[in-house]
Amino acid sequence: MVSERVLQKINEVKKQQSERLDLSYQELTQIPDIVLELTSLTNLYLSGNQLTNIPESITKLTNLTNLSFGNNQLTNIPEFISELTNLTTIYLTGNQLTNIPESIDKLTSLTSLRLGKNQLTNIPEFIAKLTSLTRLDLYGNRLTNIPESITKLTSLTTIYLDGNQIKKIPSWLAEKKLEIEIEDENRVDCINLSGNPIEEPPLEIVKQGNQATLNYYSQLVTQGQDYLYEAKMLIVGEGGAGKTTLAHKIQDNNCPLPKIDDRTKGITINNYLFSVKAKNENKNRPFQLNIWDFGGQEIY
Q: What is the model's pTM?
């Protein structure tokens, strides 16, 4: 059932032969059939409704350049969206999308693809075919890495990747003309990676700019990289709680229990060596665990 307010908006557009129809925040659960008869539309705004799917009949609106479905309940982008070849902007922020269909690579006129606040876990390689893109929004998703194919999008002026789960900034990303931003989520004209758990390069390096990031990776190649296979374990607690027993059992599960007179006086440090798989190597390395057993008596 279409409300009077919605019908009024549609009829006004029809009467004025307008190319713009805004039905945002009208509590729609589906697109009224009468909308799909407005074939002269170039701008259709349907954000903030309760839409769960996009009907195939929308392909009748072949003149659309701007299509907005933000803040609805969409779970997928249908393949037939590729038939709207005049689209320059698609706004799908704030839905429940988990993937991007490959057919979207046919929308070569797209300049703005906005997919923030969804449930995307990866950026597909085929997105690199959208060479006209100037803005790409992927903030607030579940992305863990950035594909190198994104460097083919040479027209991009802003990439929003903030609020994801990206831990590493690859060196090739710093080679782009756009600066990498890791602090200000509102900054434009950049590669915005703020709000990600960046581990590499160190944040103090990234904050110094793209050239500092490139220098960091260059030094790694020149100097090589190794990892410290050593850790410290502190065992503390009340006297007689079993700290010394735990320290012994870590090293030898079959060792006898210590006697009451063997209680730790002060601190005892034991070294325990075992083998682990080396990071980034196909071999094992010795790992040293330094076990600090603290005395638990009140005097200590």
A: 0.72
